[in-house]
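Subject: sequence -> structure tokens, single chain

Hey, anyone have a minute? Need the predicted structure for the following. Not urgent.
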Amino acid sequence: MTPLDGALWLIRHGFAAFPCDHPELNRCAGLHKTCDGSRGKHPAVAFTRGWTLDERRVYETFARGLRNPAVAVGACSGPDETRLVVVDSDRPGAIEDVASARGEQWPATMRVHTAKGYHDYLWAPAALHLGNGLGALQDQFDGDVRAGNAYVVGPGALHASGVLYELDDPERPPVMAPPWLLRALLTKPQRPVRQSYPRPESRSLQGLVKFVADSTQGQRNSRLFWAACRAAEAGVEDAPAVLLDAAVHAGLGEAEARSTIASAFRTVGVSA
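Reply:
Had a minute. Here:
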């Protein structure tokens, strides 16, 4: 499936599509001023209003050059005024594990395989006003949820790693989100998202690396950001590359880890 094929499939099945950057372009096509290195995911238009369901516009847009297709989640409507929710698992089996832990079974629904896991498309009542928060699934689910003012990269898109986003079954539509999932998403986390972590006794690179490598689910980004800030302040040599390896070892995606390290160095005012 090419990017054009993916975009056409999306609009023909009622999903609002728009173009994103493509990793094979020489320069990022995203609207942002500075690319964070996560190529292939940056919107090339203002996605909340630049999406389309028009086939002619899709042909025109994707004929201009390489672009990844993406879905404007909040612009998609399902049966009986339902709205789209996309569950983004960062590893295979992530959402199934959450369901199993609650004595539930994850439903078979529209699924797009990604570089790390998959996107599961579901419908939910519009009255619930879901967003991008995980609710009670915070620190329990290895992934994210996208609803409302959000987007996801769609089938036919190419990831920076070379992995193609592919439909598991083109004939399988989204099903209604299970009640237990909706209840969990609407429930406030039992503990604050921000947590205090024990700091390494030494701010040497070895101590910072161990601090990042020992991260568990729900801690990885915040620990990496803290460690990268300390490394930047101390001027630790080769810190970005070494911390990147530690973060990936802990289970963080490489593109996300690079972005976090770069953000930390910018915060401190140092070039990574």
